Prior knowledge:
The complex is a heterodimer of chains A (356) and B (324).
Chain A: E1 36-51, E2 56-72, E3 76-80, H1 87-94, E4 102-107, E5 110-111, H2 117-124, E6 127-130, H3 134-137, H4 144-154, H5 160-173, H6 190-202, E7 208-212, H7 220-237, E8 240-244, H8 248-254, E9 257-262, E10 265-271, H9 272-277, H10 282-289, E11 349-350
Parallel strand pairs in A: 3-8, 3-9, 6-7, 7-8
Antiparallel strand pairs in A: 1-2, 1-4, 4-5, 9-10, 10-11
Chain B: E1 4-17, E2 20-33, E3 37-41, H1 48-56, E4 64-73, E5 76-77, H2 83-89, E6 94-97, H3 101-104, H4 111-122, H5 127-140, H6 146-149, H7 159-171, E7 177-181, H8 189-206, E8 209-213, H9 217-223, E9 226-231, E10 234-240, H10 241-246, H11 251-259, E11 309-312, E12 315-317
Parallel strand pairs in B: 3-8, 3-9, 6-7, 7-8
Antiparallel strand pairs in B: 1-2, 1-4, 4-5, 9-10, 10-12, 11-12
Helix pairs in contact in B: 4-5, 5-7, 7-8
The complex binds adenosine-5'-triphosphate (2 copies), iron/sulfur cluster and magnesium ion (MG) (2 copies).
Amino acid sequence: xxxxxxxxxxxxxxxxxxxxxxxxxxxxxxxxxxxxxxxxxxxxxxxxxxxxxxxxxxxxxxxxxxxxxxxxxxxxxxxxxxxxxxxxxxxxxxxxxxxxxxxxxxxxxxxxxxxxxxxxxxxxxxxxxxxxxxxxxxxxxxxxxxxxxxxxxxxxxxxxxxxxxxxxxxxxxxxxxxxxxxxxxxxxxxxxxxxxxxxxxxxxxxxxxxxxxxxxxxxxxxxxxxxxxxxxxxxxxxxxxxxxxxxxxxxxxxxxxxxxxxxxxxxxxxxxxxxxxxxxxxxxxxxxxxxxxxxxxxxxxxxxxxxxxxxxxxxxxxxxxxxxxxxxxxxxxxxxxxxxxxxxxxxxxxxxxxxx
Amino acid sequence: xxxxxxxxxxxxxxxxxxxxxxxxxxxxxxxxxxxxxxxxxxxxxxxxxxxxxxxxxxxxxxxxxxxxxxxxxxxxxxxxxxxxxxxxxxxxxxxxxxxxxxxxxxxxxxxxxxxxxxxxxxxxxxxxxxxxxxxxxxxxxxxxxxxxxxxxxxxxxxxxxxxxxxxxxxxxxxxxxxxxxxxxxxxxxxxxxxxxxxxxxxxxxxxxxxxxxxxxxxxxxxxxxxxxxxxxxxxxxxxxxxxxxxxxxxxxxxxxxxxxxxxxxxxxxxxxxxxxxxxxxxxxxxxxxxxxxxxxxxxxxxxxxxxxxxxxxxxxxxxxxxxx
Lengths: 356, 324
Ligand SMILES: Nc1ncnc2c1ncn2[C@@H]1O[C@H](COP(=O)(O)OP(=O)(O)OP(=O)(O)O)[C@@H](O)[C@H]1O
Ligand SMILES: Nc1ncnc2c1ncn2[C@@H]1O[C@H](COP(=O)(O)OP(=O)(O)OP(=O)(O)O)[C@@H](O)[C@H]1O
Ligand code: SF4
Ligand SMILES: [Mg+2]
Ligand SMILES: [Mg+2]
């Protein structure tokens, strides 16, 4: 795809080199031992909450509260969790739409967590976002051609003829006809609009795309078209994805590894297949059990979680899941569990006292 | 087999729009049986909600009208019932739960007031009795400390709680039929599981029939006895849940079942897709509405609408080639 895009960031090395020593890295699943494109450490994103008569910011909403994970080049990390648990906030912080409250975001070796807008500029093109409702992110007064061309103009790349050629290439890559160029977003269906959003997000040849619920608003038959497109693009361009969704079946399908979030924290993470077959955190287990199975012969007596997700402004003490946890013991109310590797598979991390 | 409670026969519903008359429902027929759950699935815009609104006679006015067919409820045709008669049925015998609970609740009235209003409208009881009854119903749908919640406003509740309140209001008069239009789409899976379980329990307690509209085939498989698959305003296929999942006979149903990612499929494997898009209601084809996307189409499919044909006594499909 790329013609003459400037490389502002040194290529991460040895992605496909099996000889590369990786002794310090735990073994276990494809993709894990390779150079990490993204390393997030103890990331926090707290929002001030105005309360009381004087509307002083007395409390804070700990939307993301100490999250660490890695993503290798060409790898997908799926992020699942209930509404309000902080998935979008985490994605936006990684894309540096927010400046995080604390922690580091190492992208291709550089900590971008607190870079200024100017210092961030070269990184912007390498980290892109795709949203749930492309209509919100697409400027409805511009034609599809203008929308896809915009990133080139912002980054001052190429002349008009070169940009036009690139836009046509991009339309072709995402499976839209060339005549879409002069149309407006509202003339397209939801699935086609998502293709426009994807074309725009891959325009600058990014390394990492934060996909925030990219198929949640689409029909089942259209969802699979977009998922296939994302998988194809990843393979063709060695893209990395942080794939956010609440549908675990979708996430498991597209992800190499999965992280499960609850109230601002990752409570379990590991290879997709491992998480699905051997979930150990009671929350992950309940989440998997709650998924309706499209097979009428499969009748389950499921263990239902009681209650709702608590507010991140007043999180419960100890393990924040304890009020809903069917297996909670006395110490869960008091001690905060840490994300550790208690199992044989050392890439499978769980944050639960029952496994200490 | 339980007897028919609601029989829809050749329903046709149209909208007047700036661009012309849009036929959103075209010759739709199906039956909901007493005490059972009927699921309606289909692509966005295929007419699921318009079907529900037609039954309730709540089509947006003056644009929407039923222009053909009958809707028999306990043998009475609802399509030509005088409005005051219909209002007595609505809420008392047939209730509806909408996708977005916030739109169904009045933001400026307390939860308690909204339930007691329905009770007082349909039942000959005193205000005091209505309050007691409302507390009992809120308790029944799993709202903790219902007497305190009675005095709260919708915005003070979480999404799952609000949907419980909406269900409580819908069930206040113990209707014979509950129409639930995507009741869990806006909710998380763990909350969805709670709400679906609640509907099942209440259904068993009250012996009511449920029409459940959803685009989630998992929800259909877990909750429904019968299923209607709609496509672009028509019924593509209908049958028992086992007919549909074990012997899907319409190419659209087959495509739909093949395209969902499942927990036990190989990660990153290519999903099967249904290419293309649903035709717009303003330029519908003369023949089968699935023709432009159908992998099995042949020339005659484009010429005339395929008739509904029985696959088995409980199973019907509208496709020329189902048996081949
Ligand atoms: N810009 C903001 N300012 C203040 N609070 C915010 C902001 N964005 C998010 N929040 C709060 O942070 C918490 C996490 O929200 P977030 O949108 O990240 O959740 P989510 O997991 O993406 O949920 P959903 O599945 O509903 O999209 C919520 O309590 C939310 O109200
Ligand atoms: N007020 C209206 N005026 C004109 N057309 C309408 C109106 N309401 C609905 N329609 C059309 O009727 C068709 C059926 O809509 P309906 O809301 O029943 O779809 P649905 O199957 O419920 O879709 P979804 O899954 O998105 O809720 C759509 O094509 C829609 O555009
Ligand atoms: S009638 Fe023809 S086009 Fe329609 S579903 Fe059957 S084979 Fe496909
Ligand atoms: Mg979000
Ligand atoms: Mg609808």
